[in-house]
Amino acid sequence: MLAGMFFRDKSMGRRAIALSVAVFVLLLLEIGAVLYYSSVQKNYMTALQEKNIDAFYHGLWMVGAVIVFISPIIALHEYTSGMLKMTWRASLTRRFAGLYLAAPGYCEGNPFYRLTLTGEIDNPDQRICQDVQEFVGIAVHLAQDIVRTDCSCVSLAKGCETTAVSYYSVLDLFVESRTVLNIVSFAAILYSISPAACYGVLVYSISGTVIATKGFGPWLGFYQLARVKQEAGLRRGLRYDLIRVRENAESVAFFEGGEAEWSKFNTLFSSLLQTVYKSVLVTSGFGMFNRSFHWATFAVAPLLVGPAYLRGEVQFGVISQASMAFNIILGAMTLIMDKLESMTDVAVRVRRLEDLELSLRKCQNETQMSRKAGLAGVECIASSEPSSTDPAMLRFCELTLRTPPRAGILQQTLCHNLSFELVRDQSLLIVGESGIGKSSLLRAAAGLWTDGRGTLQLCERRKVFFMPQKPYMFLGSLRDQLLYPHVDESFVKDSDLEKALKQVNLGHLLEQHNLSESKEWASLLSLGQQQRINFARVLLRSDARMALIDEGTSACDPANEALLYELLGQRLCSYVSIGSLPSNASSPERTASEAGHLSPSSAGSPAHASVARNGGGTSAQAFSAAAADTLLVQSIPKGGRFWAFMVCNDPSVQYVSGKITSTLRAPWAAAQLVTELSD
Ligand SMILES: Nc1ncnc2c1ncn2[C@@H]1O[C@H](COP(=O)(O)OP(=O)(O)OP(=O)(O)O)[C@@H](O)[C@H]1O
């Protein structure tokens, strides 16, 4: 499958075929040249032995000439072989990375997220980088080894006549003879000498191969796979563990958690060592079997023909002839056995890469299914865009949302038949108890979570800006940070970037850093500064009309928070923001003092807006009641209609202010309130 992918690759397929042919031809040339060199060597040494001066100097010239001829062939063969490996690796790596990162033309959706979410594939990064490289390296060597031994076999047969064979030990003979043709022809020769020897070699080699593949193969594969997993695997992997420490270095340092991490590392490492130890035992056992098997052949052939010789039925030379035929057949029949370790290694890599391919394809299918959901009766959330005349920016229609499937973990239903819509110039605040499912609503809106039912409409995806709970700093320059994810937009002027930075109170960064300097921003900027970079990104997006923000100002001070939302309100038509329930929401004094007013500053911040609106009498109770649940508030900053969605576990909670348009029960009860603002 992996070779097929390479040769079918649109951009590299032809190159792949040309390189493979070149490697094959050069390999044949190299083998031919090496064999010719051996006969030149033989003549040279014979001339010396015979004290033939002319032949000696002629031999010397020939040695020099062959070296001059052979060296560039070897170099060219090495070069094309290296290029073949590089091209194959490039093709496979690009393909897997393209599928994983959802590059244009490869895949849609967010497979990298989906794989992380479901946890069904450990370390896709290791598979894409390391497994591909090792698979290609071993596979190319293995293929060349097989060709090399095939060709050596032909030459050996010839060598028997030309005495070049004298340069090979008998051991080399059977190791270097493989073709089907040889099996048949030498089996015929052996059969004519001794049918018993012919059957003997077949039984001997087949039983050896079966014992090796069935007895040792599975164990070699098992421990190889276990080793790869334990070295870098998810959760229990050694490298994964160290990467987590690096990524969370500050937190670990605050906790002085080095010792705890060391102890965990040590446990994982000891477990890895145990696997390595068992693997060494299996490899040694296999090595012992393999060696004894091959060494024993020296005795087996004479054993099968010897009695006939002792009875005087055949001449002594027949024993060596039979031995040679025996060894050649045996060499051909035990190819799998000789290459078992390399083959096991390739098989492990192939399996890991095939699993990755299957999972990536599954992610791709899920994305496509989500588009077709409803139409094809597929049980997942259907996503679409509202029509151009539809004023809706975001619409949930009878949405039932479940947590993603994960082996061994029960799926939770986070909301049931939830319906609401957000139209142009409306914004929404979502507040509520931690863990109740606020962020999950945004994940559904972004199409990241699709498990459930119902329909979700979001205005044109490229016009929506998502701000996740954890700010993400791209590896690149300050300019890249500000333009992320559109880092290639070189037409954006530096002055605009500087203006955006100044707007979010990050102008001072320009004094310390150049816009085009690449730095490790995630560790250079505070969390609040990173959140402000997020807002600067929105300000720079001329096409953005809506933002979905998950606790986007949680690390900012109140002044900056108010400023950021004010900027956002000026820049966008709508936004949805998730925030923790304001601590003062349930405080009657505080809410009462702000009753019925949306001051300009509070209008900019949905948190403030919600407090202000719900200070107006009975809806304050709703906020208080919602402290344990989730409340979704939708409001127009400068007054007008006010929408509130209460989603809670207690269906008995009553909301008296506004018109209740829908009530949902299990597993949540949801009440949708509509009220008029009275400025
Ligand atoms: N990747 C996941 N796989 C399965 N369940 C998850 C996953 N992420 C979150 N959950 C579960 O989904 C539920 C809702 O999580 P969510 O992050 O939406 O909560 P939240 O209300 O935003 O919480 P917080 O305010 O603490 O951020 C939680 O019970 C959580 O355990």
From TrEMBL:
Gene3D superfamilies: ABC transporter type 1, transmembrane domain (1.20.1560.10), P-loop containing nucleotide triphosphate hydrolases (3.40.50.300). One of its GO terms (molecular function) is ATP hydrolysis activity. Keywords: ATP-binding, Membrane, Nucleotide-binding, Transmembrane, Transmembrane helix, Transport. Belongs to the ABC transporter superfamily. ABCD family. Peroxisomal fatty acyl CoA transporter (TC 3.A.1.203) subfamily. Residues 179-345 form the ABC transmembrane type-1 domain. It comes from the Eukaryota. It comes from Symbiodinium natans. This is Uncharacterized protein. The chain crosses the membrane at residues 56-76. One of its GO terms (cellular component) is membrane. It holds the Pfam family ABC_tran. The lineage of its organism: Eukaryota, Sar, Alveolata, Dinophyceae, Suessiales. The keyword Nucleotide-binding applies.
